[in-house]
Amino acid sequence: MAIKIDYEKCCWKEGKCASCGCGSGKCFGCAEVCPVKAIKRGKKVVVDEKKCIECGACISACKHDAISLQ
């Protein structure tokens, strides 16, 4: 199984938050809850599958239902 990100639903677009103000540095979402720091935000949200332990914390933290385990 692997973490899948639906970029249509994801609030992080073009290196900044497009809906909830994450770009202000006050975000507490998928990247912040990952216990192994497998999620990074750059131009888009990326999951390092080598680090990911498939715990599901990011799925629960995503307010936009953009992350799933498949």
Low-confidence stretches: none
Report, as a whole number of angstroms, the end-to-end distance.
5 Å
Number of domains: 1
As laid out across the biggest beta sheet, the strand order is: 1-6
User: How does the major sheet shape up?
Assistant: 2 strands, antiparallel
| Coarse shape | globular
The radius of gyration over CA amounts to: 11 Å
Question: From the helix content, strand content and strand pairing, which structural class follows?
Answer: alpha+beta
CATH class placement: Alpha Beta
Helical residue percent band: 10-25%
The tally of helices reads 2
Mean pLDDT: 89
CATH topology group: Alpha-Beta Plaits
Helix and strand string, N-terminal first?
Answer: EEEHEEHE
Secondary structure elements and their pairing?
Blueprint: E1 3-5, E2 12-13, E3 16-17, H1 30-33, E4 39-41, E5 45-47, H2 57-61, E6 67-69
Antiparallel strand pairs: 1-6, 2-3, 4-5
